[in-house]
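Continuing the batch. This is chain 6 of the set; chains 1 through 5 are on the previous pages. Same settings as before, nothing changed between runs. Recording input and output for traceability.
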Amino acid sequence: MEPGNYYATPELAAAYDADSAGRRDLDFHLELAAGLNAVRVADIGAGTGLLCSMLAGAGHEVAGVEPQRTMLDIAQRQEHAAAVLWLHGTAERLPAGWADLVVMTGHVAQYFLDDAAWAEAAAHAKRALRPGGRLTFEVRNPSVEAWRTWPTAGRSWPARSMDRGAGPGTGNAPGRGIVSTEVRREGDLITHLDTWTMDHSSWTTTETLRFPSKEAVLAGLESAGSTVDRIWGDWDRSPVTPQSPEWIFLTHPV
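Output for chain 6:
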């Protein structure tokens, strides 16, 4: 059987928010939206809609676009889901000139696997912005080589911050399930193959992420007509160093 898509597998998608209390990016984006006085926020790759729901609960107008129907079904059951404009599809579905802030959380930016795809996504984000609007997103710092920690013969799940591109589990959740992971690298593309077991059920999924250079990220933004305001190295807003786990970008149209 061919490996499936984690986000399209109901039993796995249902565990996506299991470790949400440990996701430091949620508070970061809530604080950023408030600090920018963003009335309208659009989330590209909204996943289970947790951040969208939290933003709506904080009083923002929110649009969430998500290509996987399984994830979108979960999103539409979040606490403040009724206040969110949900869109099934990709960034091109966002209304033009609508948002004060566009976000890509959970390493969604790493799902654009070549320069052309990234430039197109950045262009759609720019198109969705009002004058003076901002785009924020993050990618993992490739020099840290986070993928080297992913291979495992079996760990408990759900046991991770299951954000997109997070890689396999790193914690313990006794009595749930086991995930085993194999990792393959090809240039700046990292593919991981995961086998998930729980009770008498098993699923195999795979995904490929891009770990682009900073030059590639900036070139895509420039192609889309955007430039960088700030880059942080972690969710505590610390500056970027060679050992920073993240590159967190805040950008604006030129």
